[in-house]
Design goal:
Elements: H1 2-46, H2 54-75, H3 82-102, H4 114-121, H5 134-139, H6 141-157, H7 161-188, E1 192-193, E2 196-197, H8 212-229, E3 233-235, E4 244-246, H9 252-271, H10 275-294, H11 305-308, H12 314-334, H13 336-345, H14 350-353, H15 355-364, H16 375-378, H17 399-407, H18 409-432, H19 437-453, H20 463-490
Antiparallel strand pairs: 1-2, 3-4
Helix pairs in contact: 1-2, 2-6, 3-6, 6-20, 7-8, 7-9, 7-20, 8-9, 8-10, 8-19, 8-20, 10-12, 10-19, 15-17, 17-18, 18-19, 18-20, 19-20
Length: 491
């Protein structure tokens, strides 16, 4: 019997190997199909002005959900990013459950929004809700869910360094091509916005969005991603040496093309004329410059920030000063109209004037919030007539106040948990990765850009931008946690 078993052993091994190969082929096909749904969802988003229409957000969320389910059922959750995946999933489920609770009728004896008591006072019987507009609150689940599903899909579909490098290149090239298209359309057809007529911000570049501030944040994050991948040329400021030299196998033509994409994207940021967007992008770029100057990413250096830090030298100070001067000159040259707009308007605009009213609304709904998507219904009751009554306010021009008004105190806990999770990932990535440390630092710079601009605008609440930002964050998070998993697989 033993001899017969040994005789059949090669056939069993061959069958098992064949099954593993079939499973691998099936997983690859499933991943390709999931990526096709993923890309289709993004196409719907950016052909519909950032998925600001109900039909667009529904279709894109459905396509992205199919991508997530296919990836999860066939590939599973990567061990390296399992904790991040579970953290994002818990945040999403909690926000969704809290939003649904705000739009449900309250049990007898519980008091909802004061608007429902007014109906009862005039003889109209109606159940009470936390939200003054329950339908709008439920509709807000789409813009909330799309970025969360996108981030979860990225963590599942892109898990190896080679896949992430390819995805980052596609991300940067796609963003650069959109910037080039937006500039050409802005110059040749200033009254056109993608495939429709432009109605707002006629003097500013906004494509593919309606709002120039959203476009500025979008291209700012894209520029941060491009610069962290810029490895074809490196600057030398040592007297007697070449100013530029090749690095990492890039040809001069490839490096020149990448530099051109960076310049086009920077031009798009400036042409938006968004004061907050240009300022936030400048701060993020300064952070990248500081990191690239003071922390090397050579493969020969020891791991860890402490080992990477070699102290300040004259060469490093010269590099930092040169990069800072170049950045200031370039931004100043292109941002003349932005600076003029900032000097003329300053802080004297409606966004600052209405803040006391929004703070009053927040205090009245601090505990459980007023409901996501309920701002347009709630804001007129707190709007100061001295600030002007023109215009329609769908959201507060401050993400933090809007989120606190919508969700109440849980918004503070959720935001703090999300930022802490990103900070921990960046710290782990900076200690663990060497050649790809610049990608991890870019995640921190892009997040700082978004956090700064969110204080003066609502870019994060536009699904088209938030999806783009978390797509980049997901790739960076996998890079931060990926090295240890790759070593385990090799072993």
């Amino acid at each position: 019997m033993t001899a017969r078993q040994n005789a059949h052993a090669p056939h069993k091994l061959a069958a098992a190997s064949s099954e593993r190969q079939e499973d691998s082929i099936a997983a690859k096909w499933s991943r390709n199909v999931a990526i096709a749904f993923f890309v289709s969802a993004l196409c719907v988003v950016y052909l519909s002005h950032g998925a600001v229409y109900p039909e667009a957000i529904s279709i894109s969320t459905l396509l992205m959900s199919v991508s997530l389910m296919l990836g999860y059922l066939t590939l599973g959750v990567p061990p390296a990013t399992r904790n991040v995946f579970l953290g994002i999933l818990c945040i999403w489920l909690f926000v969704a459950a809290w939003t649904i609770m705000q739009a449900m009728p309250l049990p007898a004896g519980m008091t909802g929004n004061a608007a429902w008591r007014v109906l009862q006072d005039i003889g109209i019987a109606s159940p009470e809700f936390i939200s003054p507009a329950p339908a709008d609150t439920l509709a807000a689940l789409g813009p909330i869910s799309l970025p969360a599903i996108t981030l979860l899909s990225v963590l599942i579909l892109f898990r190896r360094d080679t896949e992430i490098e390819r995805a980052l290149r596609v991300f940067c090239v796609a963003g650069g091509l959109m910037a080039a298209f937006a500039i050409l359309q802005f110059i040749a057809f200033p009254r056109a916005l993608m495939l429709t007529d432009k109605q707002y911000y006629l003097g500013s570049l906004t494509a593919p969005f309606v709002n120039r501030n959203t476009a500025a944040t979008f291209y700012g994050v894209t520029l941060v991603a491009m610069i962290c991948q810029l490895k074809g040329l490196r600057v030398r400021l040592i007297p007697g040496s070449d100013l530029f030299y090749r690095r990492d196998g890039w040809t001069p033509l490839e490096a020149a093309g990448w530099l051109l994409l960076c310049l086009v994207t920077l031009t798009a940021v400036v042409l938006t004329q968004s004061r907050g967007g240009v300022l936030a992008t400048t701060v993020a770029l300064m952070g990248q410059i500081a990191f690239s100057v003071f922390f090397r990413t050579d493969g020969n250096q020891s791991t860890g920030i402490s080992q990477a830090w070699t102290g300040l030298s004259v060469q490093q100070l010269l590099k930092a000063a040169a990069f800072a001067v170049v950045a200031i000159v370039v931004v100043g040259f292109f941002a003349g109209r932005v600076m003029l707009r900032a000097q003329v308007q300053g802080l004297d605009d409606g966004r600052v004037c209405v803040i006391p009213g929004i703070l009053a609304a927040t205090r009245d709904h601090l505990l459980v919030g007023a409901g996501a998507g309920a701002f347009p219904v709630l804001f007129p009751a707190y709007r100061d007539a001295a600030c002007g009554l023109n215009g329609y306010w769908p959201m507060a021009h401050n993400f933090y106040l809007d989120g606190l008004l919508a969700l109440g105190l849980p918004f503070v806990v959720i935001t703090g948990f999300f930022i802490a999770m990103l900070a921990r990932a960046v710290g782990v990535g900076l200690r663990r990765r060497r050649k790809k440390r610049s990608i991890v630092a870019a995640a921190a710079c892009a997040t700082v850009l978004v956090l700064i601009h969110s204080a003066t605008d609502f870019s994060v609440q536009i699904p088209g931008f938030s999806t783009w930002w978390v797509l980049f964050l997901g790739l960076c998070l996998t890079v931060a946690y990926g090295r240890r998993t790759m070593v385990r697989i090799k072993n």
